Prior knowledge:
Layout: E1 7-10, E2 16-17, E3 33-36, H1 45-49, H2 76-82, E4 91-96, H3 102-115, E5 120-124, H4 129-138, E6 147-150, H5 154-161, E7 169-173, H6 190-207, E8 210-216, H7 227-230, E9 235-240, E10 247-255, E11 263-269, E12 272-275, H8 279-284, E13 294-301, E14 304-316, E15 324-327, H9 331-345, E16 352-358, H10 370-382, E17 390-392, E18 395-396, E19 402-403, H11 408-417, E20 422-426, H12 428-433, E21 447-450, H13 453-463, H14 465-474
Parallel strand pairs: 4-8, 4-9, 5-6, 5-7, 7-8, 13-17, 15-16, 17-20, 20-21
Antiparallel strand pairs: 1-2, 1-3, 9-10, 10-11, 11-12, 13-14, 14-16, 18-19
Helix pairs in contact: 10-13
Bound molecules: zinc ion.
Amino acid sequence: MAKKTASFICQACGAVHSRWQGKCDACGAWNSIAEESPAAVALPAAHRSGRKGRPIELQSLAGSNESPPRTQTRIEEFDRVTGGGIVPGSVLLIGGDPGIGKSTLLIQVSATLARAGHRVIYVSGEEAVEQVRLRAERLGLANAPVELAAETNVEDIAATLSQGRTPVLVVIDSIQTMWTDSAESAPGTVTQVRSSAQILIRYAKQAGAAVILVGHVTKDGQIAGPRVVEHMVDAVLSFEGDGAHQFRILRAQKNRFGPTDEIGVFEMTGLGLSEVPNPSELFLSNRDRGAPGTAVYAGMEGTRPVLVEIQALVVPTSLGTPRRAVVGWDPSRLSMVLAVLEARCGIKLGGHDVHLNVAGGFRISEPAADLAVAAALVSSLSGAVLPGDNVYFGEISLTGAARPVPHGPARLKEAAKLGFARAVVPDAKAKERGGKERDGGAPPIPLDVIGSLADLVAGIAARGPRRATRAVEEA
Length: 475
Ligand SMILES: [Zn+2]
């Protein structure tokens, strides 16, 4: 059991340290450790009373299992990420930077459900009821029968929730503002956030109401991050985006009731968040076709293909150590592509700064972008403009071989739909012969099949800077 002395808890990840230190060893955060009293950790009443356990009924693995009933919000991008709607009794955590639009999204979800006749309760610990009303009014949702409260004490909230008809959805905005009588630490500390979450989770399971917790991701570690409750909830969604772009992405990081690779795309407008059913069109708008260093990548996010433009700028460096700046992709993956370009294709980039950017602020998580990144890099270095109607996808191995990636047919179909005329891809037949994936019939657009990164480089070099300019003039 915990000792009676105070302990030092990292407010970012919840790791417990025996003494104060400037940096948390567990998560690497600086200045995130605060003193808290461990005796204050709230335990369920059963633990405290010391009662004997009672035997529970064990069941067999085989048996009928119904898929959980779900309540669809009819906001399709939201339902897709949750795995088909909200599961009764489940607890969902939505994390994201402050001001990114979490409250806006959830008030829209609440209003849609309430208008469909469901009981929805929205508890704001951040704003007064008037402020929430004002926001709803701005979004044109003021007439939705959502029940509002501005409260931060979890015991009071739980007592309120247990009255009347069981709500279908309860939104707690945010979990960091909640506090419980059972913990002695200050609101916003790990102990308070955890204990409050525990009480709300217990309520959700007992009452069968879905609870959504809002968690602000904080960089300064002044308040406990949502990471400390991630393991307790059924699903963790992150709401991403930045101030420079108007679109937002809802991404599932953990989901007990659905897939974790789906994304929902929204656009922030004056009337709140509107759904973006075809994100490729959004990401490919404002494309600069005549410039070298850009390649269109046909990616997959969950079950949905997403086309994005990859931009590279390779310039001679003025520094001793050349810069490697990446936005929207894994920097170590870029290092690997650069190393393979050097080792297998003789393209030396040690004297060049490399900037890589995924247009529109999108973030790619797949290694399938290797080929598109390499094409953009070589194009920028050589000055050869890539054909504007080509898409690229495929993985590059350390040997320099180009490897096929899953969902080739879906990527090609999306590219064809958006008017692309040709795809540069690894030899998918090799995979087909392995019996892994078989696409039915001819591809929707002609393929430039390459076997290795060297093939790709040779293809781009053949275009040459001159020829490329001519091609643009002709077009
Ligand atoms: Zn930590």
